[in-house]
Amino acid sequence: MYRPSRTVSWSAGLTVLLVVVALGSAALGPVRIDPVTVAMAALNAIAVPTGVSTGTTIVPVLGFSTAVPTLEFTGVFDFEVAGTHQLIVETIRLPRIALAATVGFSLAAAGTVMQGFFRNPLADPSIIGVSSGAAAGAVAAIAFPVLAPFSSVHLSAFVGALGTAFLVYGIATEGGRTPVATLLLAGVAIQAFLGALISYMLVHSGDDLRRAVVWMMGHLSNTTWSDVRFALPVALLGVFVLGAYARELNVLLLGEEDAHHLGVDVERTKLLLLALSSIITAAGVAVAGVIGFVGLVVPHIMRLIVGPDHRILLPTSALAGASFLVATDTVARIGPAEVPVGIVTAFVGAPFFLFLLVRREVNSL
Fold first, then answer.
1. Contact 318, 304 (CB under 8 A)
2. Would strands 47-61 and 64-75 be described as parallel, antiparallel, or unpaired?
């Protein structure tokens, strides 16, 4: 029997874990900073607008220049922290940690929905070509700007991801119905085509090859607060709405015919779940590149711990995914040479998934 208090307690515990992991991550690096100082520097970074305008700033939005007012901000806290430590925490480490948590939150939530939607433990956010579409858009923007829909790599990746998702859905839909098997096959075919396209662009990318390859491996280096502002609202709103459809996702596990008899508008629910999962995945991949195994392994772990009910599985998987990506990105950046975080998630995720297979923990849903 489902108890809302169980969801609240698990979510609260995982939120505390995320805060602890984030503080630990911010303390590590070439310059070691103790966690107490990190916490004070993070609180010092909190600022609120005073309502006083200091002029306007020209901001590019979808290729157009828009003037927006520049507000004066004042800090909420004023702890005594060394200027160097405050600068490192506020402008270098916190944005990267916040983006890692946001992307992990999005990918794990989308993976949970995809596994329930397809009733397949091997499903992940890239199964309908979202990651391949994002990669195609990003590589085009990096190596061939004239081919990209926007000059921004983020926007090109986002548009490529969503365009691919809806293309796959359109191909698989016939007569108002979208069979799951057809959707899966269409996704595989589109991924293969985009893989060939990406390979062609990489071969002819010239001096931009390394930048494109690093992006495709998944990375969180040189993160700024603007990256976080791009992805965080999409992640929070998307997962919130997905949570409202957790009951319908539970019913879909019984099969589409049974779900229809139980009062679920199957096609409408499928479209909404796919659209929201694609949007939050696209936002995460657009700013961080292709990061694998977060949406595959984390939902499995949480399903073994909390059970298959998506009313608790979805929020706990999202929060666990945030902690997982913050931890793996910490490993990626504190070694002798920084490596793309996608390599670390694969090193961690693949052996663990094989362990689950050997233990026969990976079964159809």
1. no
2. antiparallel
* 114 within 8 A of 177, measured Cβ to Cβ: no
Residue 82: Cβ-neighbour burial (10 angstroms; 0-12, 13-18, 19+):
exposed
Give per-residue burial for 190-228: e unless 16+ CB within 10 Å, then b. Answer: bbeebeeebeebbeebeebbeebebbbbbbbeebeeebb
Helices then strands (H, E): number in the chain?
A: 15, 2
CATH topology of domain 90-358: ABC transporter involved in vitamin B12 uptake, BtuC (1.10.3470)
Task: Please list the alpha-helical segments (H only) found in 218-265.
Answer: 225-244, 246-252, 256-261
Q: What is the pTM of this model?
A: 0.88
Domain boundaries, the chain: 90-358
CA 54 centroid distance within chain: 35
For residue 177, give the DSSP letter. B
End-to-end CA distance of the chain: 19
Q: Is 84 helix (H, G, I), strand (E, B) or coil?
A: helix
Distance CA 309, CA 247 (A): 8
Instruction: Please give the Cα distance from 157 to 40 (Å, whole number).
Output: 36
List all residues 6 or more positions away from 40 whose beta carbon is below 8 Å from its beta carbon. Answer: 77, 79, 80, 81
- pLDDT per residue as tens, the chain (365 positions): 678 888 999 999 999 999 999 999 999 988 899 989 999 888 888 765 555 455 555 544 444 445 545 545 455 667 788 888 888 998 999 999 999 999 999 999 999 999 988 888 778 888 889 999 999 988 888 888 766 555 678 888 899 999 999 999 999 998 888 888 899 899 999 999 999 999 999 988 888 888 888 888 888 988 999 999 999 999 999 999 999 999 999 998 888 888 888 888 888 998 899 999 999 999 999 999 999 899 999 998 999 899 999 999 999 999 999 999 999 999 999 878 889 999 999 998 888 878 777 776 656 56
Nearest to 356 by CA among 315, 294, 312, 304: 304
